[in-house]
Amino acid sequence: MQTQGPIGVFDSGYGGLTVLKEIVKTLPQYDYIYLGDNARAPYGNRSYETVYRYTLECIRWFFSQNCSLVILACNTASAKALRTIQQKDLPVMAPDKRVLGVIRPTTEMIGKYSETKSVGILATNGTVSSNSYPIEIEKFFPELKVYQEACPMWVPLVENNEYQSHGADFFIKKNIKNIFEKGENIDVILLACTHYPLLKEKIEEHLPVGVTLLSQGEIVADSLKDYLQRHTEIENQCSKNKRRLFYTTDSAEDFNNHAAKFFGEKISANHIDL
Ligand code: DGL
Predict the structure, then answer these.
(1) pLDDT at residue 1, as a whole number
(2) Does residue 1 belong to any structural domain of this protein?
(3) Per the residue annotation, which of 58, 74, 151, 238 is the catalytic one?
């Protein structure tokens, strides 16, 4: 019998903390361990091979920490690495462990929010070019029209603490204008990058009236709750002492200075080398 361990939550950097925050609200009883691969972030413009390699290294680290379940709270890693890890690596490496992403739970829900049947996806270059959202949405809501816009400047604006500046306004206005030029009937915009909730207020200023702005945190948290209820063999492996541990591949001090604005409370992280 395996020993119990925390639920792992992974992101290339800070963005996954916006998801962890909602998961902890919904499922406070579990232990969580967060890893931000800040030393190698952002992942958004990197190749499939690189995102896969980095993500797999991080997954191995989570498994060494006794996690039976790891959530990739990063759209780029979910889009570019998850399928290969689930299909090729897990069966050989750790058949009893699970790795889940953020794209599937979001695409299962998105159609319920749209009346015009037109939705817009704002994401990194990597997520957009993978076409994961249109492909997955087609499975659940084939009637939906899906428009995508890559916003490559948004993660650097957030990571560099410029997300409330006039510079942020410029790029947000430009990308929002672009997506509504592609699909003028869009009535739902999904923030398909876990960094973007920090830009929510500014994005709302530029959205046409009546458009619903969705971020993934709550959707992923509800879906995880449902998953754990349905998979008792995994749930039984998750320890429940309300412990939260934070790790970064870069400077712990930098992480602590930035992370609170994503997580909503002060964090004390440790550095690891992979
Ligand atoms: N937070 C990641 C996501 O959800 C992107 C950040 C990055 O480019 O590394 O896609």
Answers:
(1) 53
(2) no
(3) 74
Query: pLDDT, tens digit, for every residue of 56-75?
Result: 999 999 999 999 999 999 99
Whose Cα sits closest to atom 6 in ligand 1? 42
Element (H, E) at 247: strand 244-248
Residues 75 and 134 placed together within one structural domain of the fold: no
Whether residue 220 contacts residue 26, with contact meaning beta carbons closer than 8 Å, is answered with no
Eight-state DSSP code of residue 86 = I
Active site residue 238: no
- Note whether 94 and 223 are same-domain residues: yes
Same domain, 186 and 116: yes
pLDDT confidence tier of residue 55, bands split at 50, 70 and 90: very high
What is the rounded CA–CA span in Å between residue 118 and residue 90? 36
- Arithmetic mean of pLDDT over the chain: 95
| CATH assignment of the domain containing 165 | 3.40.50.1860
What residue numbers bound the domain in which 222 lies?
7-101+218-271
Residue 134 binned pLDDT confidence (cut-offs 50, 70, 90): very high
Residue 2 inside a domain? The answer is no
Q: Could you tell me if the CB of 41 is within 6 A of ligand 1?
A: yes
Q: How many domains does the chain have?
A: 2
Q: Whose CA is nearest to atom 8 of ligand 1?
A: 44
Does residue 127 share a domain with residue 263?
no
> What pLDDT, on the 0 to 100 scale, is given for residue 45?
86
In the predicted model, is pLDDT for residue 14 greater than 60? yes
Residue 256 CA to residue 179 CA, distance in Å, equals 35
Q: What is the pTM of this model?
A: 0.94
CA distance 239 to 273: 25
Are residue 242 and residue 113 in the same domain, yes or no? no
